[in-house]
């Protein structure tokens, strides 16, 4: 079986892959791409042609990862705690940089590393089996995978990772990549109320959707909640989307983009309840969900609800260790080195991905934790570079900008930087609600973020403005005659 992944941050919707391998790649609307992560072997040649045809080289075609037996026992032992995207990419980057020592990857789930974004996208709207999401590797890792056993402690003095089964794994260098878990609903929940964060969660959701629920209530209209609601609409299942704020995506993107998404959701048939929360999930005599009582006094009949209230960083296993952690993650320096309780780097301890909190040049003095796919990949490269660099080589700090994408209700949202930190936005292309458009985000007279809606081919230009902290409002003249360059509050 072929394994592929597409970096949808880089994808610009040219669609060359669709022409080369139409059974593996599909373009929805103007630029929203979906794909089969594990197409059958007979499609191997077509998939390779698609990868070669991609103008931005966003497609990765994997190789078989079989033990090669070539590791050097004389080299130091690297242990990666966390078998998801950041953990896998760290292992891969280490091998790419020539690391030949023993490599161990520890994961609390029983599955090999898999891609999480499709859990709320293709696994819902296209009924893609979650067991088809294993992430590809571009080279043999020759790593030992310890799966299905969680790490419960880190002893930096003895250089040990302690596991839930009572075992301990020694290390010379350790990388913390334990990511996040779904934030639970802060109250009691009957059967039929679930979250979707893992492969097992997605399989549970698929089983329940196969029973044709009367209505599904999605709690939270962030990226994940919006994608779930969109996928349920594609299946023809009635959906109510409940959001405490004034607009979907208001926290990360503000009310201008959020207002457009609200209109799209309603047009798709979503029963959208804004400035509303859930007061109670009501169970029937059988203990299963029957109704959802809302803060506006109304009651919604439903036999399935999905809670999408964000994520909690998995740092509890580090309590009592020398690592400095809080609810915002593991404190790191700009090289992804984990800091101790005094703020000094711990020897040979690193962190990458959602769990890591790093400084960034755009926000001096602040530590930022970013829960985006691309951030896990770039931090993994930073970690691997620092572990393997010769003593005379200059360190390479992590200065990459976060980037993200979301496909929902027929449009493709792409962004870069820190839109959630801004206090003003400027529409620089198009008109919100009238097709494709782009907006820039500003804070303290500097550009700190950019978002495009069905306009991703222009994002690289705005990325350069964000990276240099260009003046805000922007001084350039837009090329779109229909654009009214209005600066407005983000609306949070």
TrEMBL record:
Domain annotation Reductase C-terminal: ranges: 404-478
Keywords, sorted A to Z: FAD, Flavoprotein, Oxidoreductase
One term under GO cellular component: cytoplasm
Limits of the FAD/NAD(P)-binding domain: 77-380
Pfam families reported for this sequence: Fer4_15 (PF13459), Pyr_redox_2 (PF07992), Reductase_C (PF14759)
Bilayer-spanning residue ranges: none
MF term (GO), any: oxidoreductase activity, acting on NAD(P)H
Reported cofactor(s): FAD
PANTHER family: APOPTOSIS-INDUCING FACTOR 1, RIESKE DOMAIN-CONTAINING PROTEIN-RELATED
Name this polypeptide is given: Pyridine nucleotide-disulfide oxidoreductase
Gene (name only): hcaD
